[in-house]
Amino acid sequence: MQLDAGAYQRMLGEELRRLREERGLTRRDLNHRLRSDLSLQTLATYELGTRQCSVVRLVELCLALEVSPEALLARVGQRYSGTFGTTDSDGVRIDLRRVVDARHDDLAPLRRWAEGRLAECGTTGAPHEVHLDSAALARLAELCGTTAADLRTRIRRLS
To answer: Rounded CA gap, 29 and 24, in Å?
Structure first.
């Protein structure tokens, strides 16, 4: 599998811009939060995905945006499905909020897991929708006393 660097870079820039805007920051505001000199033009090119930033710069931007680099890269990785081999035809995408809202007693272990993940999302800025690979799905199904196929079907109905 090959990485489309341009597409990945654009998605990273879009996520940086989305995070900045979610926090009600202008580029100038973000620039003031950084510990290094960076022009507004350079910030704009990062957000447009027309310029690569170093890992150190990315971490600096994440700190200024109060999001973990892991959460940002996970969000971009989910958008660019398959980049890290995360596509799994036996897995399932899961909306954590819908799982928490579903009050099926037999899915209590799944709901507790989703509640924990949502709590992490609140502190790291991670997405509320995640991909469960087949191994994680099988473990959760076992905890819920059902099969992976049944749990996958039920999760899809919730989403």
So the answer is: 9
Pair 96, 129: CB distance under 8 Å: yes
Say if residues 133 and 91 touch (Cβ distance below 8 Å): yes
Q: Which of 108, 98, 126 is nearest to 19 (CA)?
A: 126
Enumerate residues 6+ apart whose C-beta is below 8 A from 138: 148
Residue with tokens 């819908």: 98
Q: What are phi and psi of 129, to 5 degrees?
A: -115, 130
Q: List the chain residues with pLDDT less than 50.
A: 1, 82-88
CA–CA separation, 65 vs 103, rounded Å?
A: 35
Tell me the per-residue pLDDT of 83-102, one tens digit each, with 9 for 90 and over.
444 444 567 888 889 999 98
- Residue 152 in tokens: 């996958």
